[in-house]
Write a structure and sequence with these properties.
Blueprint: E1 9-13, H1 19-28, E2 31-36, H2 39-51, E3 58-62, E4 75-78, H3 82-95, E5 101-105, E6 116-118, E7 123-127
Parallel strand pairs: 1-2, 1-4, 2-3, 4-5
Antiparallel strand pairs: 5-7, 6-7
């Protein structure tokens, strides 16, 4: 839904076992990074990345997502609680460049207007700024 293109950068905040990172690198040919605070999940994710031959295309970094700089991301994915999404809104709106997309599973970014919604899967897509196509995310 985010129209991720080969060579673009995807960042998954709260990456867990790194499955989104691996899918982005393998299926979309993106440069993919996950941010995971749990060191064991981070280690497991990187072992899975290595075992699937995606080393150099994907990685999971042991870090706190609140402290991570997403400036280079074209797409940011989150599967976090509503409260955490709200905490990230200001950080993402300040760091991401116009046209960058945020994909949230299950929980919305309350106060922002999504550019796409899949009600059946509970996916919300937001876009930072204006891409020249007349689509603008509303920041409240």
């Amino acid at each position: 839904m985010a129209a991720l293109q080969p060579g673009q950068v995807l960042v998954d905040l709260g990456a867990g076992d790194g499955r989104i990172v691996r899918i982005a690198a393998r299926e979309f040919k993106a440069q993919a990074a996950g941010i995971e605070i749990d060191p064991i999940r981070c280690a497991i994710a990187n072992v899975l990345i290595f075992l699937t031959g995606l080393h150099g295309k994907a990685r999971v970094i042991h870090s706190n997502m609140i402290a991570y700089d997403c400036r280079n991301a074209d797409v940011v994915t989150v599967y976090l609680l509503q409260r955490t999404n709200q905490r990230l809104k200001n950080q993402l709106s300040q760091q991401l460049k116009p046209g960058a997309k945020i994909v949230s599973y299950t929980f919305s970014m309350e106060g922002w207007s999504p550019i796409a919604i899949d009600d059946r899967k509970g996916i919300f897509v937001y876009e930072i700024g204006n891409t020249g196509k007349g689509v603008r995310t509303t920041f409240v």
